[in-house]
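Fold sample X.
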Amino acid sequence: MFLIVGLGNPDKKYEKTRHNIGFDTIDALAEQYHITMNDHKHKALCGTGVIEGELSEQGVADASAAGSFYLWGGLLMALAFGLIGFLDDYISVVKKQNLGLKAGQKSLAQLLVAVVYLAAQQIFAPTTSFWLPFIGDLDIGIFYYPLMLFIIVGTVNAVNLTDGIDGLDASVTMVAAMGFMVIASIAGFSQMNLLAAALAGGCLGFLVWNFHPAKVFMGDTGSMFLGGLVVAMGFGLGLPFLIAMIGIIYLIETLSVMLQVASFKLTGKRIFKMSPIHHH
């Protein structure tokens, strides 16, 4: 038997209930992993938020392969981004070149990591769809790849931008990881639940030494690794767009830089005294 905990509402009609966030996610998972849903049981149990179905042998194999990929593939992706950050820090600190990697070199390396991750995803957990609130599972075909490339690289750079003052990046990422942990627990994603819990715990331990005045700094090595893990959790839950909501601080930091640069280039004036906005 296959049990998933969803977010049901017993006071609404069944057809309305299955379109809330929890049950739309469950329906998408059922289709992806070949779960045969019993509609009568689906209706009867929707008030408790528990859905019961049966997994075919192929479904078990697909679910296992997908879960393993999103855990280990996500970790490897995060390590690869961390390596890019390490090279940048090494050039800056050891080689005494303040700029580190050139912007083009860093962007190319990030794109390469993202492309390899998406290629591996299509081997172990093939999909061209993602879930959106109030819409459900949205299949966009070939446009999935450039959109996910943008989300992966954008998220990693957003987390990197957030690392500007003592304790900020680690604390924001700890809160984000706790959010992912709650969602993974509700949806029954045990592997993502463990990954999120480990990340939250790691950030908490790091904060002991990173709160102002910081004694230890993560640099690009740490911030890009954290960015990779945030991406891994979003993709592992099948909810990449949830990154923008859970990591709203990352989004605000990035938008502040984009607005500042655009304003200065177009008008010669700055919107903020400094950007990212955390410097205020």
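Fold sample Y, listed below.
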Amino acid sequence: MNFSYTSNSGNLSIEIPEQDFIKLREIDKVIYTCNAGGYSPTDHFVEVKKLCEFYNYNFIIFTDEHIPSLDNENQIIFSYEAPNPRYAAKIFKILPHKFFINTKISLWIDSNVNIKESVFKKLDDFLISDFDIELFLHDKRKNIIDEAAECKRMGKDSASIIDEQISKYWDKFSNLEDLGLFQGRILLRRSTNKTKEFSDLWINEILLHSIRDQLSLPIAIRESQVKFKFYEPINLHKSFKVLLHNKYNMYSDAKDFKNFIITIKTKIIFKLVKLREKIF
């Protein structure tokens, strides 16, 4: 099964074996992720899988390499052509309705996120709610404007691409700074028409503009009018644990000493955030 898209960086194509695509159609509740290019550690997925089995959820990881520690039934091995491997993960992350055709509920976790047992109570509550999506507020910044500045400062994407995107949003929304900022690493969604509309709007913004999905997430929420609920970031550690990526800047164009310093700084900040969560 082939999925093809065009981004501002070039063409993107993802291929999934037909038998695996048929298997995905049978899933009704799923926790899923994607790990392309060995970007994140995989040992924690064994624990995720066990918890999912106990609570009658499916666990699926989309991966371009077989993971020996996981059963074949938990892995969808895909091939892809893309200007940047991150685009492959974005397709799976943002468009669950393209793969899990008959799923009632899906929980996306970034590949460096582990779950705790308490998350399943939240999933059960969400299923009987009238929200389309649930997510967490950003833990460091408050709006798209600040996030754009940080992305440029850290070299996360082309400054000109980000500037063009933000300029477009200013033209559409005079209150851009009030639209909020959300974490994209954890996304809980019910399979509704509104959720599908939200997801399609979101991927279109990413393909047109910056690959940094947090820049366009508030816009997709606003334009789709999806019914959503958000949680304060301090609550994230009650149900999830965020790990360090294996290769934090493996897809950055910058390969110099400045990039090394940015990586070290980011890891220090990450450790301090984790320490704060334990204290509070």
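Sample Y note: DSSP finds nine helices and twelve strands in the chain.
Also: Residues 248-260 have pLDDT under 50 and may be disordered.
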